[in-house]
Amino acid sequence: MLRRAVLLYIGVLSLLCQSAFALTDDELYQFTPADKEFLSQFNITDLGALPEAPDNKWADNEDAANLGKALFFDNRLSKNQQVSCSHCHQPDKYFTDGLAHSNGIGQTRRSAPSILGIAYSPWMFWDGRRDSLWAQALGPMEHPDEQGLSRGELARNVLEYYPAEYEAIFGKPKQPSLDLNDISLPASPAGSAEAQSNWNKLDSDEQDAVNRIFTNVGKALMAYQRKLKLPPAPFDQFIDALNDNNIEQAKSLLTPSQVRGLRLFMGQANCSSCHNGPLFTNHEFHNIGAPEANVEHVDLGRFEGVSLLREDEFTCLSSYSDASSDQCKEMRFLKVQGPELVGAIKTPTLRNVAATAPYMQAGQFETLQQVLAHYNKPTPPYYDRKQHPSRPHFDVLPLNLQETDLQDIEDFLHSLTSPLPAGDHWWPVGETGSQEITP
Amino acid sequence: MSTGLPTHFFSESGQHLRCLINRILFGTLMVSGLAVMSPVASADHTSSGDHASSGEGHHHHSDMPDTTPPKGSLLMQHAKAIWEQAVALEEQSGEAIKYATTLRKEVANLRTQARKTKTPAGGEKTDALLQSTLTQLASQVTPWQTLAGSLRAEAEKLKGQSQAIMQQGFVALWAPWIKHEGKLTLTSMSGAGMAMAHNVQVRSISPSVPNPTMEKMKQEDGSTMSLNRMAMSSQSIPPGLETDTFKVSRNQDLFGHIEAIADDKTHPGELPLNEIHQWYLILSNTEGNPIHKAQIRVEGHMPGHVHGLPTQPEIVEEVSPGVYRVDGVKFQMAGWWVMKFVIEHENEEDSITFNLVL
Fold this sequence. Notes:
Chain A is mainly α. Chain A is 38% helix and 1% strand.
């Protein structure tokens, strides 16, 4: 009876207490079989095979991946010959640049997200405006603030710098009448007035030939990015240790504060309701009410992404995709309406989050502490009826956690940082690993 | 009619009181004038329910080789008849509850009024009489509420019976297409455990509003997990929510059945999480004839949250008369989902709604 009363008392106490169970250090590390099974779903080693990519025949082609890697680090593929993909997706920084707004030729509107694990996402960019990694790669190439090239220039440059590699993978360009040295550049339907005018001078076969090379460049870059693998982080090793019933090892991997943070992350703080799976993301779009980065030009997020997708010339359904329309169901059944699209931003991975500040799509928060403070007492999304089609959806609730709880969660997030790999052909790190190609 | 109260009771100031009492008594007579509202009538309905359930025996007779319509059609017609009875009972239940509510409010009003009305000198006797009348009136509230409740329960029972018979009708008429008659569930394949709902509850929250998700959060499997997890209870799924895959349309003119098309990764009745998949929607009229060439729109949402489906599913073809292939269906989380098919057929618009608890 007494024991029951004590248990009841403890139960009432824990209900009254807003923070995590006041577990002793030893109890903290006690996980039941069901806990472990649940946690294992977050283990990076459970990531599984890459999703099939019927829209890119070369998605798993080794040569394409190697060409893609060279292209990724090639500064010559930019207007000023100084900006490659790796300029903003730096291997040493987990393929980010540590900036709120990236610096390409100009400054970007949003922050460069990490590309680690991106091959598992059905939608690219913060607003999901592209439906494949190959189509995504084409955006920055032509963006005036990023690499600033026209697709005509890019096609010519790639064939000039990588003629053998390109031909070995994709074959000879099919349009014999097209001499890329002969056409007026820049040429693109999406660039400056000059680029558009030059583009319109090409006949449709020539335009198609340029687009073919352009999209093949994207497909090689996609093949490369599919090669990037995350080494296990302390968190993953901790789960392995738990599954091996090696508590001593588990204790050496995560501190008591980190384990409290882990428990909060999975439970009371609700982080895992969107940040779940081995990549800590559900690949969905949500509006968490992060401060509006630019109230003059609000971020419509997925709402805008969907409308761009509908006009996009390089989707899974396009003639540049290798998939049949039956294999493009995400596009065919694209959700185009709904208040939840307004201002909704893709859930980012939390892998390496402690090493990839700043946070949110435009670096609105500089530190994890600020991020967690926002989740604890979120502000509703900024609403401007002149700019928003409807009041933005608001996807989070206040957590009302204590400062110490937030600190524990922050500590836990540090356990998601993988060590930078050594000797990984695809993820070159450090000075010696620099793969940059400059003119 | 006499109120049973001494006429001199009503002073000038008591006019309103008398008016109210008259309304109540008049109302009582009006309602009890409806045969269905009397307790005796209620008993009649119970017996009609018994008749309905014994109706299955009747169908065995219809199997006799003669000129009667096919078994499936008869089953559908029978289901329709029972459904109509259920709807009639529901309406009566609604009337009863409305009456009980009016009665309760009026008694309360009268009591307030009586308190405010000064008792005339020597009026203690009438006062007592008034009080006893009011008590008597008040005592009628509960029986009416009980009657409403039992009528509703009876209606629910009949609806269940109707759906069971409709199900037999569908199976008799569309046997090759129906692989699963039970509820739809998420596939047990790995990943389903990840199907946590995110914590959307309301559009905006004031700091003073307690967070319902957090309050209700419990260990999902308390005996085996030490981790706290988001509880599905936070989605306020109504207890006993009906999740049948055989349903009657809003206008009661159509019957519908949904069938998840199994592939090499799922079994019949199982839905994959986070993957686009296909359904069949089978539509019949209440005679058991297929609804052919209907224009159908698919809508869906999560009532516990404030969001719709992650995709926009569509009808892609009518594979056989009345059998429509739905493509683009996707669920990205566990919980209560509502799928609604808005059906336009021969210039009539109707809809069928299915609840899913995944």
